[in-house]
Batch of 2 targets.
Target 1
Amino acid sequence: MVASTWTRRHIISLADFTIAEYDIVLQTAASFQEVLSRPTKKVPTLQGRVVANLFFEPSTRTRNSFELAAKRLSADTLTFAPGSSSLTKGETILDTALTYLAMGTDIMVIRHQHAGVPQAIAQEMERVGSQVSVLNAGDGQHEHPSQALLDLFTLCCVLDPDQPRASLMQGKKVAIVGDILHSRVARSNLWSLITCGAEVHLAAPPTLLPEFFRSWGAPLEEAGARSPLHLHWSLEPALADADFVMTLRLQKERMTQYLFPTLREYHRSFGITHDRLKHCKSTVKVLHPGPVNRGIEISSELMDDPRLSLISQQVSSGVAVRMALLYLIGSGKVGDGKS
Ligand code: NCD
């Protein structure tokens, strides 16, 4: 394992992640994937540590994946259910976090419908002088770093299963299609894919893909390089010769107005199907972070086609990647008498 070169205490955003950090995550996840292929899939790495999953918003994949990852590392886990918690009695989020701190929590994995909550809790943990690490499991429309890291791991494993590494993404064309406006997954993926050298093509109706998304490519343009980021308000140019297509869910719960005519019309213009993939490279693979609206952003047949769909690999990679993240931020605390 390569934790000795890891210096980050919290994982809130990928905006300032370096290629070296992506490589550490990929390498560490690969070694945990090997652990997960053994008959006994558990290691004692985080024995005696407490990982609290504080999910203030619904989740199936991310919450269970973090929970399984923590258990595979032998940590003790606490799971917070907002509906049956003291939040309903008026307790603030910061007081809830301080309660988990008082119980000896070492790592807080936080999902919240408002952007900035994981950051606020991380600051509070530092203010009170604790050693707690905070991992953002999705905050509003801001970021979802562990999803983008598991997406990167899944892509790199397709390109080289034996040695997944960031440089494999250099020059690869990745199309991200769907509700980009509301997507924290798209935002985190933009940081990771651009930093690792991919060419990213975003495609959506104009109401779901505003111009401000160009700003992700701006730092490279300012440095004199061609922007690796392209915006399209139709599907074909984004799919032409693409190596990978990442589809995104229409996030109806975040839509405050009608942003496209009908779901049928949306599927006709932007839904990914076998037929549409003819524009891509013959080796193309399709991703989706889930949950999926079957037959809307992606056809049911394509979703279930194991030759083309990486959706179940994304879910299984998620456990190895989240083990890597918990290990990297959790094992930095050696020397505190607990390791
Ligand atoms: C994503 C999320 O919650 O942002 N899902 C996930 O974590 N697997 C995407 C989504 O909800 O559409």
Target 2
Amino acid sequence: MENETVSKNFIEQIIDKDIKEGKCKEVVTRFPPEPNGYLHIGHAKSILLNYGLAKEYGGRFNMRFDDTNPTKEKVEFVDSIKKDVEWLGAKWNGDVLFASGYFQQMYEAAVKLIKKGKAYVCDLSPEEIREYRGTLTEPGKESPYRNRSIEENLALFEDMKNGKFADGEKVLRAKIDMASPNINMRDPIIYRVAHISHHRTGDKWCIYPMYDFAHPIEDAIEGVTHSICTLEFEDHRPLYDWVVRELEYENPPKQIEFAKLYLTNVVTGKRYIKRLVEDGVVDGWDDPRLVSIAALRRRGFTPESIKMFVDLVGVTKAQGSVEYPMLEYCIREDLKLKAKRMMAILDPVKLVIDNYPEDQVEYMEVSNNQENPEMGTRMVPFTRELYIEREDFMEEPPKKYFRLFPGNEVRLMNAYFVTCTDFVKDENGKVVEIHCTYDPATKGGNFTERKVKGTIHWVSASKGVKAEVRLYENIVDEEKGVYNEEDGSININPNSLTVIKDCYLEPELENAVVGDRFQFVRNGYFCVDNKDSKEGSPIFNRIVSLKSSFKLPNK
Ligand code: ATP
Ligand code: MG
């Protein structure tokens, strides 16, 4: 990578310019989630972008909850969001901040606007306000309350604050321009009456600021220099700028928009996930088939892999959608040299070596990761009876099948060559036992005097441990597409979860704990499930298979 010229994204270019022109001394960014749900992969992009910029420029990154709408917000989400941001490795400056901590300042800011003749109390009903607003092609109409005197506005706003009005009876509006081509500028509501308890301020307030008024104030109070948000706020930027200008902040923050991250064939919308949870299609917001950060963590993704993914996607203004296999590519890359490569049999059938001593246990030295010798070796017990994968034996093999079949010799990975001699079926014709003989001269996997074309993995039947393994596919039926056109529901893939109860694993895996990740040779990367595992009986989730359809451009 030494010769690679690192090209800066458009946000870095803006920051560089601001620094050069002396407009910005210290870069301050923030992540401003509304605590009304769990974070997903798209939020991870925003978190890592904001944190990454602060780090790159030696500045500050604030963690601030945008809790100005008490109807939808819960403490539960505050806690889960903090945990997710920490897990991603984004370190915020000082304490966690809350927009509700600035309610007093926001109130004073509203009073300031009233005093400047830039805000007024309006008695129109919500329906009338909508009607008066006009459309994209027609200008709006001025409210009959628009020209109230400053004194009257101050008194009415005070009454709003003191609970004299019912919800919806009166609002405070910015006095901007009802003929503006930008609807957001047609005297937007900046304060509303809502007699609801807030999860932090309780019943102290019965008026709450609107997002477009509150957000720039929050940024300005914190000294945020670059307020990064997603494209849907582009049309709100003139209002953002109006607020910080009219409130006369000395070093006003600058809003910059970038494109949201979308994954093809993946559900991220809260509304849809909520329904999947309520309908019991998934076992919670952290179901490993979802892409909430909690789900990705439970599935076994690492923070490093998510960072790699976000970096690969890049930051742009152009909306697009990224393929899920790119995320899979990142976790494979991350685990390739880190994860121990173990033997695990997911669909076991017994293999008996008839000429191997009955009570003998041999410990085979096995490399933990052939591509990373520093990871050392381990000793794996080998016995007369083993389990192998059912698909590694065929009674009547097709051409080019090089694994076990009657008369064929294969290599047992890290152990001996064996030749299939016989097999046993049950009354239904299912193979229940395969017999073979081994050649003691072939021990250790490096035997070269004779060649075999197939290598299969195994686990000792008496020394191995039984465990549950869960395999996943996309919860969405990709052939049908995400949404059912008729009723707008999700097209569910009925095979998205496979639970296998009786897998056999190398004995060492019995002691695996939450946070451990392994490669199970030939079967993929796995992690210990963080919800259902018990001490001494871990359950393993497949993070990703080993095969990839994804190719990095330019590689
Ligand atoms: P959603 O509706 O998907 O839950 P949201 O925009 O309502 O998302 P917020 O809590 O308001 O969620 O967002 C916090 C921050 O995360 C905002 O700055 C927002 O722009 C950003 N964000 C949300 N979704 C994405 C996404 N898909 N890609 C990148 N950033 C996102
Ligand atoms: Mg939101």
